[in-house]
UniProtKB/TrEMBL annotation:
This is Cytochrome b/b6 domain-containing protein. It comes from Halomonas piscis. The lineage of its organism: Bacteria, Pseudomonadati, Pseudomonadota, Gammaproteobacteria, Oceanospirillales. The chain crosses the membrane at residues 12-29, 49-70, 91-111, 142-163. Belongs to the cytochrome b561 family. Its main location: membrane.
């Protein structure tokens, strides 16, 4: 089943979710740069892909948001007592996933570095851009906030599965 239903997420929603979860997990290895100034195997093998993966995630989040909008009337319902909290939590996750690559690009453009993804130049090197650098300064704090939201998201999925014993997690598996 490709489309979502009132009881389960479809294969397209699941593919977006798990592909992006894996790529965002990869992006979180960037925190490894804070250890020994990135001079270790994580910093040398995974982190160099950070800008390319971030660019890919920007494309995926835009496509995913478009998909969510088309499926909004067919998605599984949430417990009415917590439906607003669920929507707020998911809204914050989507906002974080959208803002991370945008602010990341602002870091690069603001510093005059340009942006290349997977070997293709998207924006050429230029002079520093003060307003872009100011927006880019939000990238690191947003990374910490998004990480906290992801931990909360995973925690709630596990609570639903192991404590509430409902089908919330199974809908996305």
């Amino acid at each position: 089943m490709k489309r979502d239903s009132k009881t389960r997420y479809g294969s397209i929603s699941k593919t977006f979710h798990w592909l992006m979860a894996g790529l965002i997990g990869w992006q979180l290895f960037k925190f490894g740069d804070r250890i020994a100034e990135g001079e270790h195997w994580v910093g040398e093998t995974l982190v160099p892909w950070h800008v390319s993966i971030g660019t890919l995630l920007l494309v995926l989040i835009v496509l995913r948001l478009a998909w969510v909008i088309t499926q909004r009337h067919q998605r599984p319902a949430h417990d009415p007592a917590i439906a607003r909290l669920v929507k707020a939590g998911h809204g914050l996750l989507f906002a974080g996933m959208l803002l991370m690559p945008i602010t990341g690009m602002m870091v690069m453009l603001g510093g005059g570095h340009g942006v290349s993804a997977f070997g293709m130049e998207l924006f050429a090197k230029s002079e520093e851009i003060a307003w872009a650098a100011a927006i880019g300064n939000l990238h690191s704090p947003l990374a910490w906030l998004l990480t906290a939201l992801i931990i909360g998201h995973i925690g709630m999925a596990l609570i639903h599965h192991f404590i509430r014993k409902d089908d919330t997690l199974k809908r996305m598996l």
